[in-house]
Amino acid sequence: MLIEVVVLAVAVGGAFWLGRRSARPRRTGPVPVFRLEAQPQQWYRLTNTGSVGATGVRIDFGEHYDRSLTRRLPDSADLAPGESVTFLMLATWATPRPGELRVSCAELAKPAVVAVPEGAEPLAS
Question: Which pTM was predicted?
Answer without folding.
Answer: 0.74
